[in-house]
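anyone else get weird line breaks when pasting these?? whatever heres mine. first is seq + tokens for prot A
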Amino acid sequence: MAKRMLPVAMQIIAALLLIVLAAPLGWRLVSGDYFMQVTGVSMTPTYRLGEVVDVQPALPSDLKRVGQVVIVMLPGDKTGASRYMHRVQSVTERGTWLKGDNNLDTDPQPVSEGQLAGKPRFALHGLLGSMFLFTQSVTGRIVLAGGALALLLIAPVMARQPKIARRGASSLVSNDPDAAAYLPH
């Protein structure tokens, strides 16, 4: 029975590896969110260095809500390479002023709606965040895909292995009267 369960267990594990591989893309397609790693300490203790933040689309009205954490880009950035996350401190006719939770001063320039890149939905902390980052790296994706492929290829082979019948000492037949001396007791 256990021998028959092993190929099934291998296929289940392979399916789980593929789900882990595809889940972030599926989440992005369904929600429009993307993931961003915290690379500084300006938002400590709310968001810590190395954590992974799920960033959801934001509305222009989010820039008007004092206390709202937003992700913005530096002026002129069209690629999103300069994204950073701070909290709305105040709103004036010049724009929205942001401040990091761990910063003493408000940011030196206000931001506009055109710089808004999203707002955080949730964060992955500690080991969970580290594991997520690994699964999104090239190495992690190779490990997940390769592991799933190996399990899917090995499982059918394991299922076809012939069963080896074990015979007890009582099933042995011999004409030699001393043969019993060689049997396990």
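and prot B, same format (seq, then tokens)
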Amino acid sequence: MSTWKYMLLTAAFAAPPLHAQEAASAAVAPAEAPASDRIAAAQSLIEVMMPAAQREEMMGQLVAVTMANVSAGMQQHFGAAELAADPKAKTVFDRFVARQQQLTVEQLRTQLPGLFDAMARAYARRFTVAQLGEIETFFRTPTGRIYVTESMNIMSDPDIAAWQRQSIASSMERLPAELERLSQELKDAGVQTDASTQS
């Protein structure tokens, strides 16, 4: 398999965590609805933590930073020289990454109301009305407001970004062997794959 196919596969594996909770939640049995006063307190807290007017922008920034780190991690693994050797392929790959970012942002935009409704119920199950009020009080303090502002910027911190790039690069090192193992296990199980039909 070519270098660029490995890169595209890695990008495909790296992107799902941005919205993987949707699939995970589908497998969980519905929980009992929290009391309405808890839900109201949780909604009030979430509005302070992530104001509705800023949610799309905040999530868009998170997606952009994550995709940038994913792309940088793959380039770190393969090396700038190898990437520069095939500028046409790099252009296609960059366009692919940009498209995944756009699609993820668009998906989040349509799903944000459901996400924050789910968050409100999750908070309401774990905290009492009094506890939710105390947490909200903190977020209304000067320190709490700074936390709200800076918490979404944490992923773009140089140390976090460097860790994420290294994590992606490390994942790519084991990807070829894992793909070969997958192909062999499918073959052993009698499953026809593109590789087996072409051999």
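btw re prot B: The chain has a mean pLDDT of 77. The two ends are 14 Å apart (CA to CA).
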